[in-house]
Design brief:
80% helix, mainly alpha
Length: 202
């Protein structure tokens, strides 16, 4: 397991890894709290862009998760990056709005989903060198299955609403939206990796 955790797609200098670690952690912490506010300020609270801030923020966060999985090593860093975004999102209250109090119950599921995305990308792509698209597809589906599965467990025990508008919004937020943002994050990460490898080969 340690071999998997410490495997990276490409090696960075200690300074480079430190800088990338700081940037990824700051992104995971600040993006969910700051970006929605900026979107509301620039485009207006009722604009299409501001009202879809979860797609934008989620895509950035998933990019950070995947890049962390492929380029960072060490349990502490990976666990920190897997947990920070949801804490920031719930703490700020801007992404989920009126549903923030309800989504607190989803934090453990989101943590597990995020960590599974990081570790599966690290295991499948960085370690086993399986095709990126296949690695990303498997990792994303597992992440979404975990988060959506936890949601349905809470709904089954009536811890979270299982009928009505709130339930439908939660299903969409923890299902389709997670699939979309993770897929966008995987695509952006793919471009970053290709650009980095191309630059190193030049």
């Amino acid at each position: 397991m340690e071999e998997v955790v410490n495997k990276k797609v490409y090696d960075l200098s200690k300074t480079g890894e430190l800088i990338q670690t700081i940037l990824i952690i700051l992104g995971a912490l600040l993006v969910p709290a700051v970006v929605p506010q900026l979107l509301q300020l620039v485009f207006g609270k009722t604009s299409v862009i501001a009202s879809n801030s979860q797609i934008i923020v989620g895509s950035i966060v998933n990019t950070a998760l995947i890049m962390a999985g492929l380029n960072l090593k060490g349990w502490r860093k990976l666990v920190l990056i897997a947990t920070l975004p949801s804490l920031s999102a719930v703490g700020s209250g801007y992404i989920f709005g009126n549903l923030t109090k309800v989504t607190v119950f989803m934090i453990p599921g989101i943590w597990l989903g995020n960590f599974s995305l990081i570790m599966l990308m690290k295991y499948l792509y960085a370690n086993k060198e399986i095709n990126y698209v296949i690695s990303a597809a498997i990792s994303i589906l597992v992440k979404v299955a975990i988060i959506f599965g936890v949601l349905n467990i809470w709904m089954a025990f009536s811890i979270l609403p299982n009928q009505g508008a709130v339930a439908n919004t939660l299903r969409n937020t923890m299902g389709l939206t997670q699939l979309i943002t993770a897929s966008i994050g995987a695509f952006i990460s793919f471009l970053i990796i290709k650009l980095e490898l191309k630059k190193r080969a030049a």
